[in-house]
Amino acid sequence: MIDREGSPGRGRHEGIRRYARGAGNPPPTWVYRAVRALARELVRPLARVRVEGMDHIPASGPFILVANHQSVLDPIFVQSACPRPVHTLTKSSQFGTFPFGWLLPRILALPARRYRVDPHVVRLMLRRLGQGEVVGIYPEGERTWDGTLQPIRRGTVRVLLRAGVPVVPCGISGAFHVWPRWGRGPRRGRVILRFGEPLHFGVHRGRAAREAALPEAMERLTSTLQDLSDDLAGAAPVLPGEWGLEGAGPRGPMAGKGGA
Amino acid sequence: MALRDLLYRCPRCGMDPLPGMGDLAECPSCGARYERGGGQTRVRVTLPGQEPFEVEARRLSIEIERHGGPVPDRDLPGGGEPILRSARVRLQEAGGERPVRWGGRLLGFVERFDDPREGTLSVTSEELVFVDAAGRREEWALDDLTALQASSSKVQVRTPGGRLLQFRFLDESPRRWESLLRHLVAEAWRRSGKGEVVEFQPRITTR
Hints:
The complex is a heterodimer of chains A (about 260) and B (about 210).
Chain A: E1 2-3, H1 14-17, H2 30-43, E2 47-52, E3 63-67, H3 74-81, E4 86-91, H4 100-106, E5 110-112, H5 119-130, E6 134-137, H6 154-163, E7 167-173, H7 175-178, E8 189-195, E9 203-204, H8 207-229
Helix pairs in contact in A: 2-3, 6-8
Chain B: H1 3-6, E1 20-21, E2 24-26, E3 33-36, E4 42-46, E5 53-56, H2 57-66, E6 85-102, E7 105-113, E8 117-123, E9 127-132, E10 137-141, E11 147-151, E12 154-158, E13 164-169, H3 174-191, E14 197-199, E15 205-206
Antiparallel strand pairs in B: 1-2, 2-3, 3-4, 4-5, 6-7, 6-8, 6-13, 8-9, 9-10, 11-12, 12-13, 14-15
């Protein structure tokens, strides 16, 4: 059964409201706000951040914020820009180390186990959404190695289809340069955050309905994030001329030799 | 992490492995030098006797794929099934999970890893083999693995029975190993008739 999200009346967010029961109050946000302000000041000398599309962020009500993942600094950029507190899915192993184990719960991070299907974190997300909160997800599940968007995880999209709340896409560009996954440390650079128009996937009750809607939703989310983040997936290979190999063929004289 | 984790073989000539440290990698075969560039997603390339130029990291990844990507050019010596690659690793196994609570409520769970064991990890087209410093050997068939993923400098696999193993690579690129294992696991699953792998995490799924 598909209940199109965005339709006025009693059906709005009905799919997730029941999860709010017994969930307790959402954690207080004063630590979150203090850490966010501090982090913003710490990254200010590193990155000039430009934010576009702020008007696409709903002022109230639940939504899921999805962003591409270029750098370890992405949560700071995104949560500094988003005016509402964001409960961000974070890999659970981060909670096992100090000081992150102490800090992360206080800045509303939710521990997600990455090596197995984690129904607990899905329930927790739906509870937070049921309470009218914002949940942040990096649907690639890991940082990019080369600046391009990684495949979106199917499990994430299944959750979006189940929650039925608006999905606000956020494209991050430039964070890869500031601190790439393989980089030894940060460098100064420009970062652009583009919030796109909220996507409405509808509420898909039942596994069969979600599986049927999955391919289209994955494609829509992937193309939206690619557009918003200037993805380089279609980049051309390096030209032989650039390699200094004119007349030597596209693979070069050493191709396939496998080392000295 | 280092630039050679991204450029695990030379994008220009295919030399494998490409040595380097930190934000620099240099190919002893063709002389190409790679550094972190000054622009978005770019790497600065200096060829012998030429002015440096910058290219997107993605374009260098494409070049590596054109040279065969993570699949080695030659077999390393080994008994039985040829060993495709081996590396020094530190193995840890998750010995359980502990709850994460805050404000009196359960937030979730975090894996507890046991003490690391150093040894050699090898892979053939059929299996993953770990031999520790004391010579103890463990092996897992690739078509039995249920999850595979890279995290920072590690690759994690889940074996049948729910064992979660984490391999930290001491002097190899975790990206290469993740790509190589994905390639080999997909092949092994296809060969054993389990289907076409479409996702490796949080569990391997096929269509």
